[in-house]
Amino acid sequence: MALNLPRKVSVLGSTGSIGVSTLDLFEQAGVEVEMVGLTAGRNAARLAEQALRWRPQVAVIEDEKALPELRERLAGSGIRTAAGAQAIVDVAGADAQWVMSAIVGFAGLAPTLAAAKAGAVIALANKESLVCAGPSLLRRAKMAGGAIIPVDSEHSAIFQVLDPEVAGTVSRLILTSSGGPFRNATREEMAAATPERALAHPNFSMGAKISIDSATMMNKGLEVIEAAYLFSMPAERIEVLVHPQQIIHSLVEYADGSTLAQLGPPDMRPPIACAFAWPDRLPWPAPKLDLVSAGPLTFQAPDPERFPALAIAKQALAAGGRAPAAMNAANERAVAAFLDRRIGFLDIPNVVAETLERMGRETAMDFTDGDAVETARETDAAARRVADQVVTGLCAA
Length: 397
Ligand code: NAD
Ligand code: MG
Fold this sequence. Notes:
The chain is α/β, with parallel strands linked by helices. It has a domain at 8-150: Rossmann fold. It is built from 17 helices and 11 strands. The protein has helices at 17-29, 44-54, 67-74, 85-92, 109-117, 127-143, 153-161, 187-191, 195-199, 208-216, 218-230, 269-277, 291-294, 309-319, 323-339, 347-359, 372-396, and strands at residues 8-12, 34-40, 58-61, 80-83, 98-101, 121-124, 147-150, 170-177, 238-242, 248-254, 259-263. A 7-stranded parallel β-sheet has the order 4-3-2-1-5-6-7, sandwiched between helices. A 4-stranded mixed β-sheet has the order 9-8-10-11, with helices on one face. α2 links the parallel β2 (34-40) and β3. The longest helix has 25 residues, at 372-396. The protein binds nicotinamide-adenine-dinucleotide and magnesium ion. Magnesium ion binds at residues 152-154, 223.
């Protein structure tokens, strides 16, 4: 049976961990794609190498200073080059049928919205865009006749096992978490943690920002918000379960007492394959799950004392309005400050909580309003300023 696969595709954030996994999946599955655009932040060398292999119409680099190098490396190839945030938005909104949204952070929002408006099927890795403007993003995709298929492994798991026909009978969504590198660490060890130690994820290598989010468990906090929007589920019916082996990617509990789970090896290519071929299944030489060698699967409850980020995220979700976007911005600044060795590891959730406190939660963001995205942008900018002040205060103390 011939598969109905997308042909014209773009990969936003192609030089990152998810971007590279996406191109590797295409390679291994031997799919024939017509590449519309490849985009990167500042790594011109890697972007040029990918462009020479995948022959996109255009290769876009966000950092304008890297454009000369990109041009030089692609000279004579016939591949167009461009630079800047707007050029990325333009390629995201071009005519690809399938767009991998794998830019990290709030920077992914505008391109993802452009792809949604263009009616593309969006494979969404960039969870931050849903956290900051989830309802608007989902509405725009729906209105334009496109779709958003989650790539985040937990949400891909839920997407695969949640039958929309009986969504009303779901009692709980249970998101699994590896627990991160500090699952068994003491508070003292966490307080003294260096970026090198925090970046060492137990099961696989990811971009720096999500690795730190995984260590603070803010990643799971962002994912709770992501799940709430994607699956229209209130915060109190979304739970987090620590499962260090990362074999069970999440679970859906139904009212009749049945719980369905999705399993797979800890590898991002299967969820990317799922988002690429859905509702078909892409054949490729996938690493198969070997439950015998995986050994015992274990579970534990997350520790709210050492991982306050989870509760902060749930509160932001419950507060609604601007709170999730402000939380995300504060977290991005706090993670950057930690990576720059300006603040300690345990300061990260404190900066986020203090930023939310200072910003107050009185101004609601009305998601039915067409300006919700503009409000998310203003909130993001304001929260960054406040978070930077909180960081500066900590550094002076
Ligand atoms: P990464 O840091 O490895 O890659 C990020 C990509 O975005 C790179 O191509 C980079 O050049 C580009 N980029 C960075 N800043 C940019 C900017 N300002 N403008 C344009 N492009 C920019 O990150 P990653 O680990 O691949 O994660 C990407 C997204 O996927 C994140 O939102 C992350 O939360 C999500 N995600 C990642 C994983 C994973 O296993 N890595 C799993 C689930 C979800
Ligand atoms: Mg995840």
